[in-house]
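Posted in: Protein Modeling Q&A

I'm a second-year student putting together a small comparison for a lab meeting, and my supervisor asked me to include a predicted structure for Cohesin subunit SA. I've never done this before, so apologies if this is the wrong subforum. The sequence is pasted below exactly as I got it from our records. If anyone can share the structure token output, I'd also love a short note on what stands out.
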Amino acid sequence: MTLCYGTFLSVMLTSSPLLTWSQTTKRGKKVPAEKGLAGGKAGSHGRMNGHHQENGKKSMMLFEVVKIGKSATQSVVDDWIESYKHDRDVALLDLINFFIQCSGCKGGVSAEMFHHMQNSEIIRKMTEEFDEDSGDYPLTMAGPQWKKFKSNFCEFIGVLVRQCQYSIIYDEYMMDTVISLLTGLSDSQVRAFRHTSTLAAMKLMTALVNVALNLSINMDNTQRQYETERNKTIGKRASDKLELLLQKRKELQENQDEIENMMNAIFKGVFIHRYRDAIAEIRAVCIEEIGVWMKMYSDAFLNDSYLKYVGWTMHDKQGEVRLKCLTALQGLYHNRELNARLELFTSRFKDRIVSMTLDKEYDVAVQAIKLLTLVLNSSEEVLTAEDCESVYHLVYSAHRPVAVAAGEFLYKKLFSSRDPAEEGVSKRRGRQSPNANLIKTTVFFFLESELHEHGAYLVDSMWDCATELLKDWECMISLLLDEPILGEEALTDRQESALIEIMLCTIRQAAECHPPVGRGTGKRVLTAKEKKTQLDDRTRITELFAVALPLLLAKYSVDAEKVTNLLQLPQYFDLEIYTTGRLEKHLESLLRQIKEVVEKHTDTEVLEACSKTYHALCNEEFTIFNRVDIARSHLLDELVDKFNRLLEDFLQEGEEPDEDDAYQVLSTLKRITAFHNAHNLSKWDLFTSTFKLLTSGIENGDMPEQIVINAMQCTHYAILWQLAKVTESSSNKYYNDYGDIIKETMSKTRQIDKIQCAKTLILSLQQLFKEMLSDLGHNFDRSSSVFSGIKELARRFSLTFGLDQLKTREAIAMLHKDGIEFAFQEPNPQGEGHPPINLAFLDILSEFSSKLLRQDKKTVHLYLERFMTFQMALQREDCWLPLISYRNSLQAGGDDDTMSVISAISSRSSTSRSKKAKPIVGKRKMTEVEESSCSSSDGMWINQQQTVQTPVMISSPHLTSTVLRDPKRIRPEESYMVYPVPPEQQQQQIQQPSPQVHRRGAELMEDDEEPIVEDVMMSSESRLEDLNEGMDFDTMDIDLPPSKNRRERSELKPDFFDPASIMDDSVSMNILTVL
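Accepted answer (user: helix_wrangler)
Welcome! Here is the predicted structure, written out as tokens:
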């Protein structure tokens, strides 16, 4: 079908802002063969991607191709170009409809509409075609099919211009029409038209800027070649070459003029109006793209005429738009070669950028600080001291990203520039290292900020950018212990206190690996690299401070503030280092210093710090426990003996206690009370002494208030320790008294219903396991007392099933089934390479493996492997040990020493194999499974004449193929029930297998793969926003400067092993067929 496109174009241009530039650039060029398209597809007459079109509609529209996104954009564009070369009217109609449909319009533009309607009439007609019930359109729609639409749409426009840049865009037809359409749509009252066309126009402009840049480079190269050739002597000069170069330069200049006109049309027709649009998303698109233009082609766009739009828009009401302004500027300031062109802009808008560091939107504040850091890198003189100070205090912000960005700014400003004289001492350590002055600077800044209680916040803010500096504990120790070198000013007492506090904060950050309280969202799971760094840091901290801490305590033993902070260090030690590093003598020194601190101080904070230090060191898991426990006992013996002597003298009748006696009693009582809080001092019977003291105070009424307070506290702690002891003994008594009742209850329950009893036991273990995970986290230690207690309970439960395995065969099978399903129920959020969250439960479940018969173990093992992937079977890390140990417990007692993991997973057929490895078979038919099962060497299902009542399933379990399963897809059936059936019915069922089972199995074997379903990522539509007021700006013409593989996955429906199959050999053949 043909179309008189010249008439339409003239009509469109009449009402289009492109008239001024399109009419002045017409040169009637012919369209030569497109460069790089010689191998294009032929036979595309009137077609797009091989599909016919009529009246703007075809079986597969260009919009659908881009929406689906399966075809490569390059191929789609090449097809369109081939169609355009054959019949440009039809191809251009495809492109027009493409933009209309990308806006969400249900209608299409026909040839008659082009011929008889003006541009505004066409847009009005398309507006009527919109679905008024929904405000969604492709750019705002959610769902997997729209997730990549915007990126595909933008990519299509860029590739289209790139492929047409050598000829088609200069034919004064395609670009004229497209720019006219997009300009008209961008002025529509319909948001979908305005948003989509603005995005298309901005991406079109970006592609044209890239074309203009390439033209500029080619013109520079051509000019250089021309000058080189012209400077040759007349004899060597090639006139033909000069003429060709002149012609080429002229053609390049003409092309550049055309590109300038196109860009001017887009800039004036779209950008100037839409960067002030009422919709924030549209404004953001404009600002984002102008930033790209200035960065890509700085010679043409990086000037105040364009920068002013970004500067003005930094006052936008919406954080999304302000954020785009900052990110656009970051791309410019990052390139130091462009700094000279940004000087005027910086001086004009610097104050606005500084004020944005306090933006109500945290993301905007973070990017504003990062932009100021780039400005600081370009020139330190630009930012005044007041500007910098407004950023400095943000290191104490509770919002960590803001604080980290401010910490990087602080580090760049104060610490990044080193004195050239320090370059030669970079290898020195301790007080003479280059970090010494930087650490002092940190201390000075901390003191000047007058926010001393937030030292942890300062350290956390600088942790990412100044890790090496903050971990230079050797230098910090040297600054505190060593005498200052000649000419160096010593630290004041206040500066030493600040340095000790900062040092403590850095040690805490390194040992705990999480932000301070109030700044983080909770503890996160550390990576393997972070865990290694944490262990290395703790080792280094222990090695350094095991030696230095006694010296520091000796130097500052009378300073309560310093001692309190220093005494917190041992809780971050790796106490094993004291033994492995042969540091016992330093431990003795530490214990002596702590004892001296206790004797010198009566301040509650200091005494509690000493008590906590003893508590941290008295860890029974380490070999130093006995040594520390003896030192603690000697100290408490002395304190209690002294207190009893003083108390006896203090309470003597007839004598008035003087102030000195009262002080001695109070100071000793304070020390004892501080220790009684964290340590059980019941063996010293302090309750009797403190009760006597309180009784005397009640009777006489002249007891000093502080003595009464501390006596009551000490009495309170004594009572609490006694209550804890009584509670523990009561628990043991309860177990002894009521244990027999519980055992009898479990026995009766088992007699009533063995299966439900087993389900109850496994459910109770699962609940205990879940409670443990909520308390200890997913990365708990399997050697912990809690986990060991659950395993011990499982062992006791296992003993209750007795020795008759035939009687409990069905219940044990159900127990293992539920346990396996629970272990693989929840996948690890870190990905498939990590074990499922509940995998450690298999360690508990292995306690019941001994209750399975040998042939039942093999069946359970097959069921376990249905939940395993091939990669799981190959894992040997510690986190996979529960799976390995459970599999081993199921393989124990078989005829073979080993079982083939690969064969079991790939075929799911043979339950055992000989010691000689057989070739691995990927898939087998159902008859092969039966033959393999029947020919099993141990004759696992041999006796079909047993008369034991065997339960069978109400309905046949789902059949599965032998393809690897994804553990995420397996879900247990809640309706899974077992009924005992008389032997006669069992025999009848065995002799007459259900034909439906074989039919279903055959069908699944023929097609056992399910389609891959992508995740759905939801996106919300932005609300209408108000337009910025008071922005009436001038515009300018653009004047270019003078030249110088798809992932495969098989997923199966859930399937279950039938407990009936492990109860009676008589049904084993049929069940194996099902499996």
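A couple of things worth pointing out for your meeting: The first strand starts at residue 47 and ends at 48. The radius of gyration is 41 Å.
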